[in-house]
Predict the 3D structure of the following.
Amino acid sequence: MLKIRLARGGAKKRPYYYIVIADAHSPRDGKFLERVGTYNPMLPKDGATPRVTLKADRIAEWLTKGAQPTDRVARFLSQDETLSAKVKWTQGNNPKKGEPGKKAQERMAERAQREADRAEAEAAAKIEAAEAAARAKEEAAAAAAAAAAAPAPVEEPAAEEAPAAEAESSAEVAVEEAPAEGAAEEEKTEA
């Protein structure tokens, strides 16, 4: 199958294309049958010299032989008055061209899930912190209410403290004597 296509020429970052008739299986810049035009994208669109030059009679002959133009060359040919009747070019529509691929969509879904999990964890932490603060306020309020409800301890004069100290010391003596009496009773029961 014959194609009318572009073959790149020119220097690095200074492209210049030849419009050629080539076999569909040959490489882009490889063997071709005939050169039928040029395309210089470095020239301005509305400049004095045209960006595209075509040999219309040779292209028309190759079209009758069955050569198929590529999309870019068909655009050039449809703009030429003599060839526009032979070549109908319509702009292609590929709505999925700008969409990311499967792997990129999977990565985006994973990233969105991680973000959602992190946001959920942050929200849970904020709720827990708010609950802890509310509990602390409730405990503080309860402690304040208990302190307000309980009567304040009355301080007794120092003279009354001495009899209390004597009562404590007499209780200690009684506790010390009691085990001695219990030990004597245990000895009697053993004999």
Observations:
- Strands lie at 2-11, 14-23, 34-39, 52-54, 68-69.
- The helical segments are 56-64, 71-79, 102-149, 161-190.
- The first strand starts at residue 2 and ends at 11.
